[in-house]
């Protein structure tokens, strides 16, 4: 400021002190932060510096994918046998010369325990539905005993599911309408009803209700034909019912 006024610094200070404005004059000459120009960004690439790979260096190819380990001969043999005979323990045991826990241990050691379990469960479900809950028929098709079948059902966690299907079949049988539907199942599905545990009750019901009708027709010349007509049965089924109930 002294240079621009062409005076010495000492003379300038004395003059400003005399006027009492020395501090204010210097503050005006220096300026404030608000009067400073804002910094402006310079256009150019942003971000961290990029390290570029020399052209002479090429990327290494990815390593080849590891091949799955080949199946053991034991696993391959058991898998083929399972596909051939199915999850039937008796048949598998005959082919492998083992049974029971040893048979299951062999599949477990080959890593096929889960596959055997799932396929065995599916097979039992299908046979249970096919034979309408007949434990005896399912066991016969698996070439085992009803007791062994029950043990497998327990082992595979199927007991509640199979019993629920039996309950459904019982309800279905007990909902059959009188007289024809109810009598026909007693005549033609006795084994199934026996396994469901309801044959005895249905036999008693049919005997009482059909017996009342027969007694009302006793002594008539065409009693057998009238009996069949009242019960909505064919002549053959009416005769079978008479024989079953010892009606004469």
- Strand composition percent: under 5%
Sequence stretches where pLDDT stays below 50 over 5 or more residues: none
* SSE class: mainly alpha
Count every helix, treating DSSP H or I runs of 4 or more residues as helices. Answer: 14
Topology order in helix (H) and strand (E) letters: HHHHHHHHHHHHHH
Describe the overall structure.
This protein has 14 helices and no strands. With 248 residues, it is mostly helical. Helix 7 (135-141) crosses helix 8 and helix 13 packs across helix 14 (235-245). The chain starts with 8 loop residues before the first helix and ends with a helix. 12% of the residues are buried. The model has no long low-confidence stretch (mean pLDDT 86).
Key structural traits:
248 residues; mainly alpha; elongated
Furnish the topology, listing elements before pairings:
Blueprint lengths: L8 H11 L2 H9 L42 H13 L3 H8 L3 H10 L3 H18 L4 H7 L4 H10 L3 H16 L5 H9 L1 H7 L2 H19 L5 H8 L4 H11 L3
Helix pairs in contact: 7-8, 13-14
Task: Give a brief outline of the structure.
By secondary structure, this protein is mainly alpha-helical. It is built from 14 helices and no strands.
């Amino acid at each position: 400021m002294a240079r621009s006024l062409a005076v010495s610094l000492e003379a300038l200070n004395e003059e400003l002190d005399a006027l009492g404005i020395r501090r204010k004059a210097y503050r005006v000459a220096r300026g404030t932060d608000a009067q400073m120009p804002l910094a402006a960004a310079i256009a150019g690439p942003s971000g961290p510096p990029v390290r570029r790979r020399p052209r002479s260096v090429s990327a290494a190819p990815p390593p080849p994918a590891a091949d799955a380990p080949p199946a053991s001969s034991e696993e391959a043999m058991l898998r083929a046998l399972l596909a051939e005979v199915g999850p039937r323990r008796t048949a598998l045991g005959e082919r492998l010369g083992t049974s029971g826990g040893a048979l299951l241990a062999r599949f477990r050691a080959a890593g096929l325990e889960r596959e055997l379990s799932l396929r065995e469960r599916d097979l039992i479900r299908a046979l249970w539905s096919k034979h309408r809950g007949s434990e005896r028929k399912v066991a016969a098709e698996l070439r085992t005993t009803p007791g062994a079948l029950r043990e497998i059902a327990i082992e595979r966690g199927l007991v509640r599911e199979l019993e629920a299907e039996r309950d459904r079949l019982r309800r279905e049988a007990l909902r059959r309408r009188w007289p024809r539907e109810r009598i026909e199942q007693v005549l033609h599905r006795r084994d199934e009803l026996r396994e469901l545990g309801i044959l005895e009750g249905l036999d008693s019901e049919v005997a009482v209700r059909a017996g009342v009708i027969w007694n009302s027709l006793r002594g008539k010349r065409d009693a057998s034909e009238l009996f069949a007509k009242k019960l909505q049965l064919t002549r053959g089924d009416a005769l079978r019912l008479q024989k079953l109930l010892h009606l004469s």
